[in-house]
């Protein structure tokens, strides 16, 4: 198979690269106390929140950017980024949401109008630094479920925010988390009361639109005892030559017998084949199974961003608690991904599963980095890890860095890793049966990702498959 | 008209010339057996016909139903009705066997201007043949060839042949690794396909399969050429005297 043909096929066009033509309020670039005060004021935040932000800024200024990731990029000038951008027309109700935003969300396949809302999926739509619309809030209120933007939550539910924000990802956790803690703009807050099974899928769609701005959202999900929630996030950004920074923080808290299922379809603009443009995606995601028998499950399909640096993790504190990580990361063009998970076993009989699938094409570089840590009291802890890499063409790379720290000799840890190339033999076999090359490649890739896709809610599994196809379109021709 | 005509084909694998002026014509409704010692070019011959990427044809022509196929992509040759049962069918993890086969069947139906089969129609067909070949029902849901035994893989090849209904059927060492039950089931599947029009090219190292699929012609392949063609009586001579005894016909 000729290399050019492979390239043609993998360089799928990014079709969400349009720009929404709306008037935007953008704060001038730069990061100092004034910026923080400005953001906090714009958000009409209480004083205590401003103080937390300022504290985070001080901490951040003393920290240095980590360099251990298997990624290469030009140094980020944090003073040249604008830390707040908002569509000018702040909506009070849906009628007031700028029609251009509604139109844009429609293009993204997420209608926000009441009559067209996705059945059974409540959506929080975030453009740049603000949440523009949350759907189905009334229906959710009936069940006592809180689903709102984090800015609203800070104003309306200060006790919950004070109790849980920074409880899983401390503000000084790492460089990017500290930055986010200082400047976070919007994001989603979810609270599921005791014993409630959230009646619908919750979903947030993040859209970066403004030029030269960063997106710093913060999401907090608290599932009280015996509750269940399935939450999904999606994201996209316009095609631009400049790199844009996205540094998010997600915290999950699952109490006794609670379960949180968190799915991500990440499709930020990936940049071009020479590595020009694209989103720098530096994200800290962590959940804690705080009570016994709690369960947190991360599923991610990462196809976008020029650089991805994220490790959705689980702290398994409660006895018998369960952590899961299912990931498909695709790097094509000149994309680089360093992603994986940390499973921290503290409670007894805790178990974790890691299934990571990396797909690399063209000049894509894909790194799995994972830590399984078994604490001294985690008797009966079990982990199963499987990290598979699939290479398409011969200019891409796959790397695996599994780490294991075990203080408990009775723990049981299994790790399997494979690297395979879409073999010419496999392709030929399918073609000899009359299946064209492109369908053959997508069949092999889907087969490779099957274990992960089967974890996604159905609508999202369909979207993920379509996205994967588009991303790898022409990867073989 | 001949179904497949191979005319003075020279073909390389890498730098090495393997086929050296091979001539062979398949007749409709006939079973042609290719026999020959190791390294004679038997597998290269099957790869050449289906357009395998390892093979470079440097001279000669291959015509299928009168038309040259050398410039056709492998999938086009398949859609036109050329089928190869692979000597070593490859495993494709995560790809559901029935899903794959339905894609293949519908690609061919589409090519022929027929309506595609829906999942229910397809499964009905597939189950019929599964039973006939003595295959387990879980073959529907398992991943394509993954973890299949040698016998299961070969039965799966024959299943695909039955579903795809090709016109030229190449069986590359179909009997290798088969126990007697599997050999019988596979042969039964092949014999079912005989309809007086299809041509079969049975490539084999051993004569055992030829007890089950009666050949009309035996071709001896040696050093990249067909050096002798005869009726089935040649099998006995080869069994007794080996390939050394065969002299190239003028």
Quick take:
The complex is a heterodimer of chains A (477) and B (250). By secondary structure, chain A is an alpha/beta fold.
Question: Could you outline the blueprint of secondary structure elements for this entry?
Answer:
The complex is a heterodimer of chains A (477) and B (250).
Chain A: H1 3-10, E1 24-26, H2 33-42, H3 47-61, E2 85-87, H4 99-107, E3 121-127, E4 130-134, H5 137-142, E5 146-149, H6 150-156, H7 158-164, H8 175-183, E6 188-192, E7 201-207, E8 218-223, E9 228-236, E10 243-246, E11 249-254, E12 259-266, E13 278-289, E14 295-302, E15 307-310, E16 313-316, E17 322-331, E18 336-345, E19 351-361, E20 365-374, E21 382-392, E22 397-406, E23 412-421, H9 424-432, H10 437-453, H11 458-471
Parallel strand pairs in A: 3-7, 6-8, 7-9, 8-11, 9-12, 10-13, 11-13, 12-14, 13-15, 13-16, 14-17, 15-18, 16-18, 17-19, 18-20, 19-21, 20-22, 21-23
Antiparallel strand pairs in A: 1-2, 3-4, 5-6
Helix pairs in contact in A: 2-3, 3-8, 9-10
Chain B: E1 4-13, E2 16-26, E3 31-35, H1 42-50, E4 55-64, E5 67-68, H2 74-80, E6 82-85, H3 97-111, H4 119-132, H5 150-164, E7 168-172, H6 180-192, E8 199-204, E9 217-222, E10 225-230, H7 234-241
Parallel strand pairs in B: 3-8, 3-9, 6-7, 7-8
Antiparallel strand pairs in B: 1-2, 1-4, 4-5, 9-10
Helix pairs in contact in B: 5-6
Q: Which features does this protein show?
A:
heterodimer; A: 477 residues; alpha/beta; eleven-stranded mixed sheet; ten-stranded mixed sheet; 11 helices; 23% helix; globular; B: 250 residues; Rossmann fold; six-stranded mixed sheet; four-stranded antiparallel sheet; 7 helices; 10 strands; 32% helix
Characterise this structure.
- The complex is a heterodimer of chains A (477) and B (250).
- Chain A is an alpha/beta fold and 477 residues long.
- Chain A has helices spanning 3-10, 33-42, 47-61, 99-107, 137-142, 150-156, 158-164, 175-183, 424-432, 437-453, 458-471; strands spanning 24-26, 85-87, 121-127, 130-134, 146-149, 188-192, 201-207, 218-223, 228-236, 243-246, 249-254, 259-266, 278-289, 295-302, 307-310, 313-316, 322-331, 336-345, 351-361, 365-374, 382-392, 397-406, 412-421.
- Chain A has one domain.
- In chain A, a hairpin with a 2-residue loop joins strand 3 and strand 4.
- In chain A, helix 2 packs antiparallel against helix 3.
- Chain A has eleven helices and 23 strands.
- With 250 residues, chain B is of the alpha/beta class.
- Chain B has one domain (4-245): P-loop containing nucleotide triphosphate hydrolases (Rossmann fold).
- Helix content of chain B is 32%, strand content 26%.
- Chain B has helices spanning 42-50, 74-80, 97-111, 119-132, 150-164, 180-192, 234-241; strands at 4-13, 16-26, 31-35, 55-64, 67-68, 82-85, 168-172, 199-204, 217-222, 225-230.
- In chain B, the strands form two sheets. A six-stranded mixed sheet of chain B has the order 6-7-8-3-9-10, sandwiched between helices. In chain B, strands 2-1-4-5 form a four-stranded antiparallel sheet.
- In chain B, strand 4 and strand 5 (67-68) form a beta hairpin.
- In chain B, helix 5 packs parallel to helix 6 (180-192).
- The longest helix of chain B has 15 residues, at 97-111.
- Chain B is globular.
- The two termini of chain B are 25 Å apart.
- In chain B, 42% of the residues are buried.
- Chain A binds chain B through residues 1, 423-426, 428-437, 439, 443-444, 446-451, and chain B through 50, 52-53, 73-75, 78-79, 83-84, 86, 89-90, 92-96, 100-101, 103-104, 107-108, 111, 143-144, 160, 164.
């Amino acid at each position: 198979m000729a290399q050019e043909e492979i390239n043609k096929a993998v360089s799928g066009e990014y079709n969400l690269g349009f720009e929404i033509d709306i008037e935007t309020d953008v704060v001038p670039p730069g990061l100092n106390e004034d910026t923080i005060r400005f953001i906090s004021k714009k958000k009409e935040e209480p004083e205590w929140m401003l103080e937390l932000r300022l504290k985070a800024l001080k901490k951040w200024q003393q920290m240095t950017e980590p360099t251990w990731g298997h990624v290469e990029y030009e140094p980020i000038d944090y003073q040249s980024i604008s830390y707040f951008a908002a569509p000018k027309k702040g909506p009070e109700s849906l009628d007031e949401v700028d029609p251009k935003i509604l139109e844009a969300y429609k293009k993204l396949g997420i209608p926000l109008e009441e009559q067209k809302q996705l059945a059974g999926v409540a959506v929080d739509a975030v453009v740049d630094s603000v949440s523009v619309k949350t759907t189905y809030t009334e229906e959710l209120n009936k069940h006592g479920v809180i689903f709102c933007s984090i800015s609203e939550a800070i104003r309306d539910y200060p006790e919950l925010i004070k109790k849980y924000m920074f409880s899983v990802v401390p503000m000084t956790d790492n460089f990017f988390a500290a930055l986010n803690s200082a400047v976070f703009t919007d994001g989603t807050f979810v609270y599921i009361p005791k014993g409630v099974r959230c009646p619908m899928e919750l979903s947030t769609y993040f859209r970066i639109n403004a030029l030269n701005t960063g997106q710093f959202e913060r999401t907090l999900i608290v599932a009280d005892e015996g509750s269940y929630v399935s939450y999904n996030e999606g994201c996209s950004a316009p095609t631009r030559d400049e790199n844009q920074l996205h540094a998010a923080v997600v915290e999950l808290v699952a109490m006794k017998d609670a379960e949180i299922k968190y799915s991500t379809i990440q499709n930020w603009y990936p940049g071009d084949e020479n590595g020009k443009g694209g989103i720098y995606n530096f994200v800290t995601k962590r959940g804690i199974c705080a009570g016994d028998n709690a369960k947190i499950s991360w599923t991610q399909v990462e196809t976008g961003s020029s650089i991805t640096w994220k490790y959705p993790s689980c702290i398994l504190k409660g006895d018998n608690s369960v952590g899961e990580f299912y990931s498909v990361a695709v790097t094509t063009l000149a994309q680089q991904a360093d992603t994986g998970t940390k499973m921290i076993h503290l409670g007894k009989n805790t178990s974790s599963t890691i299934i990571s699938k990396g797909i690399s094409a063209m000049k894509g570089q894909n790194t799995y980095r994972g830590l399984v840590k078994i604490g001294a009291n985690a008797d009966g802890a079990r982990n199963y890890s499987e990290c598979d890499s699939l290479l398409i063409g011969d200019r891409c790379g796959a790397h695996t860095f599994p780490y294991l720290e075990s203080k408990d000799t009775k723990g049981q840890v299994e790790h399997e890793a494979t690297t395979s190339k879409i073999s010419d033999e496999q392709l030929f076999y399918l073609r000899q049966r009359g299946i064209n090359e492109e369908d053959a490649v997508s069949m092999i890739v889907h087969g490779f990702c099957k274990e992960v896709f089967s974890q996604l809610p159905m609508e999202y599994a369909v979207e993920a498959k379509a996205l994967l196809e588009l991303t790898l379109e022409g990867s073989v021709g | 008209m001949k179904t497949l005509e191979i005319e003075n084909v020279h073909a390389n694998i890498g730098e090495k010339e393997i086929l050296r002026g091979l001539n062979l014509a398949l007749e409709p409704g006939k079973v042609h057996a290719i026999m020959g010692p190791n390294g004679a070019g038997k597998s290269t011959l099957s790869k050449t016909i289906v357009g395998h990427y390892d093979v470079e044809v440097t001279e000669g022509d291959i015509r299928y139903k009168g038309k040259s196929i050398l410039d056709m992509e492998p999938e086009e040759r398949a859609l036109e009705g050329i089928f190869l049962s692979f000597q070593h069918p490859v495993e494709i993890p995560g790809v559901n066997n029935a899903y794959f086969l339905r894609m293949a069947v519908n690609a061919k139906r589409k090519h022929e201007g027929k309506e595609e089969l829906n999942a229910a129609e397809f499964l009905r067909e597939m189950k019929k043949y599964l039973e006939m070949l003595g295959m387990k029902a879980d073959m529907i849901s398992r991943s394509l060839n993954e973890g299949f035994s040698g016998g299961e893989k070969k039965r799966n090849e024959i299943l695909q042949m039955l579903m795809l209904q090709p016109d030229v059927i190449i069986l590359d060492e179909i009997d290798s690794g088969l126990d007697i039950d599997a050999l019988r089931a596979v042969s039964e599947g092949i014999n079912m396909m005989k309809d007086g029009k299809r041509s079969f090219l049975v490539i084999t190292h051993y004569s055992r399969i030829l007890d089950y699929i009666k050949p009309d012609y035996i071709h001896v392949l040696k050093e990249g050429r067909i050096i002798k063609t005869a009726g089935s009586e040649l099998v006995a001579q080869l069994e007794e005297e080996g390939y050394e005894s065969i002299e190239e016909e003028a």
